[in-house]
Amino acid sequence: MQRTCRGAIPSILALLSLTAASAWDPAPWLADLMQIRTAINKDYPNLEWLTEQREVSLDRWFDHAADSIRRGRSDADARRILDNLIARFDDGHLLLRWPEEEPVRVQNVQSEATPTFPPTLASFCAVLGYDAGQVTAGTAASLPGYHAFDSGEPFRTGIINVNYRKVGVVRIGLFSPLGYPHLCERAVLAARIAINKPCDAVCRDRVLTKAYALMTYGLMTTIERLREAGTQVLLVDLTRNSGGSEWAEAAARIISPVPLHSAPIGVIRGKTWVNRWRDIATTLRNEAKESSLMDRPTLANFARRADAIADGLEPCFGATCSRLAQAGYASGLLPEWSAGQFRGKKWAQEVFNVAQFPYRDSVWRGPVIVLVDSKTWSAAEEFAALLRDNNAAIVLGIRTGGAGCGHLYGNDPIILLHSRAILEIPNCARFRRDGSNEVGGIVPDEPTGARWDDGAAYAGRLTAARLPQAIARAEALTLDNDQ
């Protein structure tokens, strides 16, 4: 009679597991962790805000991550630890992407699609990254008494009556045409682009430029129709808006009843930024040589201002030297500029990036309310902050996500030497009128208590409860501006 040795097989498996764990080497992952720390210290523009405002001890964070990696048993453990570390920053533009993952950004999120044959307009635009799934219904459509208003595309609109006030609602779900495939389809038709051929970078830029123009006209038309319908207050719904692009600056100027002064931008001092602003100054001087006699003094003045910014970005040392220095504004070299002031000038967007869009100032001239939530990010926060800091709107909702400024002019990611993971670090900070960093999120004037993941009806009721107070404050703000 044979005896069975109970527990022999589990013991062998445990031994094998222990052997595999002991063979795992944490050292290369600790080197990746140190590379992340070095990059944060050197390149992260929100470092001071993180340590001074959030009162974070980075030493404690990284020491804890290092200890966890040493106790880990596999590459999967190390990846999880690094992912958790990056998540603790709670910065929508600070990302760690593993080699097999596709890029996902807060701004200009693009989807991949498989082309169909024969191609259709819809499939052509899908391949270019236009995806309606990036835009949700938002919260305002769930307000009690909300009635949809047919104002055309691309923005959903509605009307709600509050205390004898007719409130027009505009839903902006993304500050980029990439969330509105029909804009791409119209742009392709208008530009007469063949959809049965590959679309290279030049082709994509033609489509995007036209789509932005259509988006701009669409917002202005929407505002005009709401105004013609007798609305007295405008509510702009930015809930679950993940961001977009500098088009937010144009949209804000369309909606604002007063002239806007854009937020200052801070970057880390260094030769990269010095050279960029020197290049802008050189471009403006070259443009002056080919411009009219009337424009030459203006361009010369702009070039001197660009050089002055470059001078201020030179590296410096000592206790009085700050890591960050101002590099113009969210709108470029100039913080404000009347729409169309230099229309037709090819150098216009070199000094004021909003000039690339065919917008008009102050299409709306009444009270404005901006509705936000914790999933309002990036360019959507820029829009809300720009209007609030210029006393052009009241913010309603809950504190926004806090992505702040992202990747100004684009910046190169960092590849971790061992894991080959890609670390993306924002390269700019955007500052509020009170000097605070926008990465802290936009705190509403009128908090609703609603959460982004609440049921639609419940979120609508919570928002509606605070809407009368927001309307009263927005009307008072407009009255002050008129005086």
Can you tell me about this structure?
By secondary structure, the chain is an alpha/beta fold. The chain folds into three domains: 22-105 and 411-440, Transcription Regulator spoIIAA; 135-177 and 215-258 and 362-404 and 443-483, 2-enoyl-CoA Hydratase, Chain A, domain 1; 259-360, no CATH class. Helix content is 42%, strand content 11%. Helix 7 crosses helix 8 (201-228) and helix 8 packs parallel to helix 9 (247-255). Residues 1-7, 12-20 and 102-112 have low confidence and may be disordered.
Query: What distance lies between the first and last C-alpha atoms, to the nearest angstrom?
Result: 104 Å
- Look at the helices and sheets and give the structural class: alpha/beta
CATH homologous superfamily classification of the largest domain = 2-enoyl-CoA Hydratase, Chain A, domain 1
Shape: globular
The number of distinct structural domains comes to 3
Find the count of extended strands (DSSP E, 2+ residues): 13
Low-confidence runs of at least 5 consecutive residues: 1-7, 12-20, 102-112
Q: Would you tell me the overall average pLDDT?
A: 91
* Main sheet: strand order: 2-3-4-5-8-9-13
Radius of gyration of CA atoms, rounded to a whole number: 26 Å
Identify the CATH architecture of the largest domain. Alpha-Beta Complex
Helical content class: 40-55%
Taken in chain order, the helices and strands follow as HHHHHEHEEEHHEHEHHEHEHEEEEEH
CATH topology of the largest domain: 2-enoyl-CoA Hydratase, Chain A, domain 1
CATH class of the largest domain: Alpha Beta
Strand percentage? 5-15%
Largest sheet composition: 7 strands, mixed
